[in-house]
Design a protein that fits this description.
Layout: E1 3-6, E2 24-30, E3 41-44, E4 50-54, E5 60-66, E6 75-77, E7 84-85, E8 97-102, E9 108-113, E10 118-124, E11 133-140, E12 149-154, E13 160-165, E14 170-176, E15 185-192, E16 201-206, E17 212-217, E18 223-229, E19 238-245, E20 253-258, E21 264-269, E22 274-279, E23 291-296, E24 301-304, E25 308-316, E26 321-327, E27 336-343, E28 347-351, E29 361-366, E30 369-374
Antiparallel strand pairs: 1-24, 2-22, 3-4, 4-5, 5-6, 5-7, 8-9, 9-10, 10-11, 12-13, 13-14, 14-15, 16-17, 17-18, 18-19, 20-21, 21-22, 23-25, 25-28, 26-27, 26-29, 29-30
């Protein structure tokens, strides 16, 4: 009878930003007392020392300064001289401005228009100084996105543009042949998330590498919805993670943003005309990160071919199923499948193969994301 040793090693390092398993409300900060009583969308500059708020009443873009980056307790209105009129005329803007985005160096600004269904691009002579803005170009998205466009975001290199529409759960994906040049944009796909969210979309934000996406839903389902993308900025690889109900803090949410390290989330709404700040439990995420921990076998066992043993594990925030494998060389070149998919219920009865080895490693991974695993 052949026997072999099953020696298990453990490594899986996570970094938790707070002790809570869900977002923690910090405070709200008024941005509705400087001539715009229905602020809707906003954006920060790269170091968080400036915040720009799109108004919905007078169509003004307002600038706020922060003496400490991303610290809203240091927020100060920059004054009327620093604001920018987003609708001097129909030729240079839209009378219902919504989403806002910048290119990486702050010399180009993009405003989504809800009235004419358009994206307007502005050139800034001085980076992130909206008082130096001048209208550059525009594209009509009526035929591609339809009425009701609300927010827009870009991939890190500006070659993809994502637009939400508050009449649907779809996100419209455009490809730009020249990064951050909207006149080179063309619609390449429309991704529908109605299988995960039963509400229409508004605000949208990605983490820097595009592997996490948060979307604001409106109506009776006022929530922030999180998706994980196995390939950055590729919505076809998105899987639903979790949601967070924000009704207690804002009943008409619009814009959403992160600070520089993803430890803080900000949500702007028109009910309170304020920006609501939340501490996140993990970087760029509403929940603790997905983890798997093998609990048995735990190393040193000698198991006999043809017998059975129970593999056990614990998990947090993974998909419904896990994959289980074993290797005789630490998964360097030898990988053998125990099961391609089994319910994540914490245990699996394994019939030991007649495949003798002095050292065998078992690995359990998330079927939806193989990078989430433990050995």
């Amino acid at each position: 009878m052949k026997t072999f040793n099953l020696i298990i090693s453990f490594f899986y390092i996570i970094s938790v930003l707070s002790q809570s398993s869900s977002p923690i409300f910090v405070n709200s900060y008024d941005v509705g007392t400087n001539g715009e009583t229905t602020p809707r969308y906003f954006a920060f500059n790269t170091d968080g020392t400036k915040m720009f708020v799109v108004g919905g009443e007078k169509d003004m873009l307002l600038e706020y300064t922060l003496s400490t980056g991303y610290d809203l307790t240091t927020l100060t209105y920059a004054g009327n001289k620093e604001r920018y009129n987003l609708h001097i005329s129909n030729a240079t803007g839209d009378p219902q401005p919504r989403g806002i985005a910048f290119n990486n160096d702050g010399t180009e600004m993009f405003i989504l228009g809800n009235a004419a269904d358009e994206v307007n691009e502005y050139h800034l002579a001085t980076a992130f100084d909206i008082s130096t803005a001048s209208h550059d170009s525009r594209i009509d998205i009526t035929a591609t996105v339809g009425t009701g466009p609300n927010d827009l975001k870009f991939s890190a290199d500006g070659t993809k543009m994502f637009i939400t529409n508050n009449t649907t759960t779809k996100i419209f994906v455009f490809t730009l042949t020249i990064g951050f040049d909207v006149i080179t944009a063309s619609l390449t796909s429309t991704e529908d998330f109605s299988a995960y969210v039963n509400a229409k979309f508004r605000g949208l934000v990605f983490n820097p590498d595009g592997t996490k996406m948060l979307v604001i839903s409106k109506g009776s389902n006022k929530k922030v919805n999180e998706f994980r993308l196995s390939t950055g900025f590729d919505l076809t690889t998105a899987s639903y993670v979790a949601n967070y109900d924000i009704t207690s803090y804002e009943t008409d949410p619009h814009g959403v943003a992160f600070n520089n390290d993803g430890s803080t989330m900000y949500i702007l709404g028109t009910t309170g005309d304020d920006v609501n700040e939340f501490t996140l439990p993990y970087a760029y995420s509403l929940v603790l990160p997905p983890t798997i921990t093998v609990t048995a076998p735990n190393g040193g066992e000698t198991l006999t071919g043809g017998s059975t043993t129970t593999i056990t594990w614990t998990s947090v925030n993974i998909s419904a199923n896990v994959k289980i494998e074993y290797s005789k060389d630490g998964f360097s070149s030898d990988t053998n499948t125990i099961t391609t998919s089994t319910t994540d219920d914490g245990s699996y009865i394994w019939t030991i193969p007649n495949d003798p080895s002095s050292t065998v490693t078992v690995r359990i991974s998330d079927v939806a994301d193989a990078t989430v695993n433990d050995v």
